[in-house]
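Quick review question:
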């Protein structure tokens, strides 16, 4: 299959010595990666698929759908209040005030406005975000080689996540535009089925993609931070905080570490991407306006409205997404490589090994 040539990768789990011996002729001399995983269509004991196989990438995409679609839908009420604070701070003065006003005007059902475009949009985004991240990480690692993949692993995470998010936002953009209109324009539409036809009638296809560039501005930095910060935080937690090696941790303990690393990454994600998020919210409310027009009107201070609820929302979201995504890998018995280790060939070059 198309992905099978990318199966040799420095981020793969190590094998037991017996497994290494079985496939040692397929290895590049001196490499400390999994021998069996370097062989096409070889599935390690206990795994349901081979690392880097088509099935592996498809299951990663499924994990992205489950993790992103469900978590974003769960926090729709907070997202709705956050968007309303961004577009009408005079009316919605704070998080608590925003909930109070929304409940008074729309009742409890009003807090669920925009759930459908949120669910379908972020499911599509999750498919591309997580699935393509795994694909690009393996492809780019294969291009630059094992040693450079370790030395430049942060850059590898950044490039892979940016590439994945570029396509993920194209899938998300129409649903995000509909969600913001439903949540911030009273009387426009109450459901996704109502919103799409009205948007086409009012602005044509441009209604779905006029927010794509600011969406890229928001989501690409967010995702780059989300994946690179998570990967490096996870590495540091196992190195300095977790009292025993990852291999000695139960899967439950590993998932707890995953959640902690995800929350830390989420806080940084929210801060980095918040100004662009405010522009996206305001842009989809303002008919005919450009992203630059909205940014000028808001000013630097205005673009930070709703930051506190977004930190809470994104921190929780990011932690939950990584927890669910890793949980899906456990549930489907997928390969879950440990944090990368320095290749033996590089250790020898640096005089760290004989």
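Suggested answer, residue by residue:
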């Amino acid at each position: 299959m198309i992905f099978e040539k990318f199966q040799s990768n420095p981020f793969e789990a190590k094998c037991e010595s017996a497994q290494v011996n079985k496939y040692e002729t397929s290895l590049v001399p001196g490499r400390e990666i999994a021998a069996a995983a370097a062989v096409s269509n070889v599935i390690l004991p206990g795994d349901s698929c081979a690392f880097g196989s088509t099935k592996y990438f498809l299951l990663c995409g499924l994990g992205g759908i489950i993790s992103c679609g469900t978590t974003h839908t769960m926090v729709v009420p907070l997202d709705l209040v956050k968007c309303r604070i961004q577009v009408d701070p005079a009316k919605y003065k704070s998080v608590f005030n925003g909930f109070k006003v929304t409940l008074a005007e729309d009742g409890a059902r009003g807090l669920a406005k925009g759930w459908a475009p949120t669910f379908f949009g972020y499911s599509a985004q999750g498919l591309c975000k997580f699935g393509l991240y795994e694909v690009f990480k393996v492809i780019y690692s294969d291009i630059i080689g094992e040693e450079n993949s370790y030395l430049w692993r942060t850059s590898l995470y950044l490039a892979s996540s940016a590439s994945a998010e570029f396509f993920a936002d194209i899938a998300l953009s129409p649903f995000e535009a509909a969600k913001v209109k439903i949540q911030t324009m009273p009387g426009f539409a109450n459901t996704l089925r109502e919103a799409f036809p009205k948007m086409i009638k009012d602005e044509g296809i441009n209604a779905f993609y006029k927010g794509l560039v600011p969406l890229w501005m928001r989501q690409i930095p967010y995702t780059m931070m989300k994946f690179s910060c998570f990967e490096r935080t996870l590495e540091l937690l196992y190195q300095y905080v977790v009292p025993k090696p990852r291999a000695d941790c139960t899967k439950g303990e590993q998932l707890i570490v995953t959640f902690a690393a995800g929350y830390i990454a989420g806080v940084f994600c929210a801060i980095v991407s918040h100004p662009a998020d405010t522009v996206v919210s305001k842009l989809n409310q303002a008919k005919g306006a450009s992203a630059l027009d909205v940014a000028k009107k808001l000013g630097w201070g205005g673009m930070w409205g709703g930051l506190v609820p977004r930190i809470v929302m994104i921190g929780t979201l990011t932690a939950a997404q990584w927890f669910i995504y890793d949980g899906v890998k456990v549930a489907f018995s997928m390969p879950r490589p440990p944090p990368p280790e320095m290749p033996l060939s590089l250790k020898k070059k640096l005089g760290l090994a004989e």
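Why it works: The mean pLDDT is 84. The chain is about 70% helix and 0% strand.
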